[in-house]
Write a structure and sequence with these properties.
The chain is of the alpha/beta class. It contains 18 helices and 15 strands. 39% of the residues lie in helices and 14% in strands. It has a seven-stranded mixed sheet with strand order 2-1-3-4-5-6-7, sandwiched between helices. α4 links the parallel β3 and β4.
C-alpha cells in the first residue's frame, strides 16, 4: 500500500479555549479520523499516517518533514469543527507552500455546512460533506487513477474559478459495513489520552433541537451498529487495552429502545459488566424502571441528560421534544437506582430572562446530580438556531469564529448571542457563578475527591488524582485563572449598572 495519506486532527483555536484550561480537560481519541483511516486500511488502498494535535502539535518544520515523507500523490485530510477551523485553514496554507501538488481535503461538521468558507482558502482543494467514509475512500481511489472529481457524490471543490457542489451522498444504511475502529493506530499515545475507551453504537437523531448540528453529518434517521459488532469492540477495549470505563459517545444511546435492551443483555451474557463499566447519554423521556434496572445490571455507572433549562417555555422554544419535568424525573430515578446522574445546561436561550437562569440554578441544586456543566448558547453554523438568529442579525461572529465555544465566557467578553434584556457580562456572570458555585464548595470538592465523574465530566481526573502533584498544580492554576476571570466579569457587570 502506498504511504501517501496524512490525516490530522487540528488544534483548537487558543483564543477560544485557554491553554491553562486545555491542560486539565479530557483528551479523547479523535474517532472521526480513526474511522477514515480504518476504511482506507481495510480496503488496502493506502497506508495512513495520523497526527492528533491535541497530543502532538505540529510546528512548521514538523509539517514539512511529515508531508515530504509521504509518497506522491500526497493527500492530506483534516476533520474540522468550528472551534478548530482556524488551525485547519492555517495548516492547509502551510502544506500547499511545501507541496503545491498535494491534495488538501477538509471534512467534518464545519466544512459540511460552510463549504464556501472552506474553499475560499486557497490551501483547501476539496470539502467532503456529510458522512465521509465512502466519499473519502472513493476520492483516494480516484486520485490514484488520476480521474475527474465530477463523479464523486458528497464533495465540493473549485473548477475554473467556480465552486462546484456535487450531489449529496446517501447515508450509510448498514453501519456494520464500516471496518472495526483501528485503536492500534493510537497506541503510541495511549498514556496521553484521558480516555482510550470511546465507542459509538449508533448514528443519527430524529429530534430537532435548535442548538444541535449533528444532523448535518449523521442525518435524522437513527441507525445503529449490530450488537455483535459493539460487543466485539468492547471486548477489545476491556481485554487488550484494560479500559475500566467505556464511554459510549452517542447523543442518545436509547434512540432505539429494543436495540439498547439487546445491547444490555449482551453485555451481561458476555460477562463484560464484570470487567468494565459504562457511561452514556440519553433523553429523559427514554427512561423507565426496566431500562434503568437493566443498565444498572450491565454496570452503567453514569447516565447523562440534556436538562438544558428549568423553564418549560424555553424547552418548547428549543424544540427539545421533551419536558423539564420528564428530564428531572429521569435524573431522580437514575440516582435512586444507584447510577450517577449528570446533566448539561444551556444559558442564553432565545427569550430567556435572568429569572429563568436563576430558577434553573435552583432546580439543578435540588436534583441528585453527580456532575453538571453550565454552557452558554452557541448558535453553530448548520443549526436551526444559527439560521433563525443570523437572519435577525443577532449573531456576532468574531474573526475565525473565535467566540464560538460553549465556555467562551472564560476567554473573552463577546458571546455570539445574548437574548434581549440581558448583556454579555450578565449572561457570563450567571453561567460562571453557576459553574463555580456548584464545584468550589464543600460538597463539590467532596464529589471530586470521591468520583472522577465530577468536574462537569470534562476535567481529566484519574483515581486518587489528589496524590499527584502535577495534577494538583494544574487544577490549582486553572482554579486561580477561573476565579480571576470571574472577578473581572463581576466588576464589568457592576460597572454596566
Amino acid at each position: 500500500m502506498p504511504n501517501n495519506i496524512l490525516l490530522i486532527n487540528p488544534a483548537i483555536n487558543p483564543d477560544s479555549q485557554n491553554r491553562v484550561i486545555n491542560k486539565i480537560i479530557i483528551k479523547a481519541v479523535p474517532t472521526s479520523l480513526g474511522v477514515l483511516a480504518g476504511v482506507l486500511i481495510d480496503a488496502k488502498i493506502a497506508s495512513v499516517h495520523l497526527i492528533d494535535e491535541q497530543i502532538d502539535f505540529l510546528k512548521d518544520d514538523d509539517i514539512e518533514k511529515t508531508v515530504l515523507s509521504l509518497h506522491p500523490p500526497r493527500i492530506i485530510g483534516m476533520s474540522v469543527l468550528t472551534i478548530n477551523s482556524k488551525r485547519a485553514y492555517a495548516l492547509s496554507g502551510v502544506i500547499k507552500k511545501i507541496d503545491p501538488k498535494s491534495l488538501v481535503v477538509l471534512g467534518g461538521i464545519h466544512p459540511t455546512v460552510m463549504p464556501f468558507e472552506a474553499l475560499s482558502h486557497l490551501g483547501v482543494d476539496i470539502v467532503v460533506r456529510g458522512e465521509g467514509e465512502e466519499t473519502f475512500k472513493e476520492l483516494v481511489e480516484l486520485v490514484s487513477r488520476k480521474k475527474e472529481f465530477r463523479t464523486i457524490q458528497g464533495i465540493s471543490y473549485r473548477e475554473n474559478g467556480n465552486i462546484v457542489h456535487n450531489p449529496e451522498r446517501p447515508l450509510i444504511d448498514n453501519l456494520d459495513r464500516i471496518p472495526p475502529f483501528p485503536y492500534y493506530l493510537f497506541e503510541r499515545n495511549f498514556n496521553k489520552y484521558s480516555t482510550f475507551g470511546a465507542i459509538f453504537t449508533s448514528r443519527g437523531c430524529p429530534y430537532n433541537c435548535i442548538f444541535c448540528s449533528s444532523q448535518s453529518i449523521s442525518g435524522k434517521r437513527y441507525r445503529y451498529f449490530s450488537t455483535e459488532r459493539i460487543i466485539s469492540e468492547i471486548k477489545l477495549l476491556a481485554d487488550k487495552y484494560k479500559q475500566k470505563i467505556i464511554f459510549i459517545m452517542d447523543d442518545n444511546i436509547a434512540g432505539n429502545r429494543q436495540h439498547f435492551f439487546s445491547l444490555l443483555r449482551a453485555i451481561i451474557d458476555s460477562g463484560l459488566h464484570q470487567r468494565t463499566s459504562f457511561q452514556a447519554s440519553l433523553r429523559g423521556d427514554s427512561v423507565n424502571d426496566e431500562l434503568l434496572d437493566m443498565a444498572k445490571a450491565a454496570n452503567f455507572r453514569m447516565l447523562s441528560y440534556g436538562l438544558e433549562t428549568g423553564s418549560e417555555n424555553l424547552m418548547e422554544i428549543v424544540n427539545k421534544g421533551e419536558t423539564v419535568k420528564e428530564v428531572a424525573k429521569a435524573i431522580r430515578m437514575t440516582h435512586e437506582k444507584g447510577i450517577a446522574a449528570a446533566a448539561t445546561v444551556i444559558f442564553g436561550l432565545p427569550t430567556e430572562t435572568r429569572k429563568d437562569r436563576w430558577d434553573t440554578i435552583r432546580l439543578v441544586r435540588s436534583l441528585p446530580l453527580s456532575s453538571v456543566r453550565f454552557n452558554t448558547l452557541v448558535p453553530y453554523p448548520g443549526t436551526p438556531a444559527f439560521e433563525i438568529l443570523h437572519k435577525e442579525n443577532k449573531v456576532i461572529i468574531k474573526k475565525d469564529w473565535e467566540n464560538f465555544a460553549v465556555q467562551y465566557m472564560w476567554e473573552g467578553d463577546c458571546l455570539p448571542y445574548v437574548p434581549e434584556g440581558s448583556t454579555n457580562h450578565k449572561l457570563m456572570f450567571d453561567a460562571m457563578f453557576a459553574n463555580l458555585s456548584y464545584y468550589l464548595n464543600l460538597n463539590g470538592i467532596k464529589g471530586m475527591l470521591k468520583s472522577s465523574f465530577a468536574g462537569g465530566n470534562v476535567i481529566a481526573l484519574k483515581k486518587v488524582w489528589y496524590l499527584s502533584p502535577k495534577t494538583m498544580y494544574r487544577l490549582l492554576r486553572a482554579s486561580f485563572y477561573l476565579v480571576r476571570r470571574f472577578l473581572y466579569v463581576t466588576r464589568k457587570m457592576i460597572l454596566e449598572k
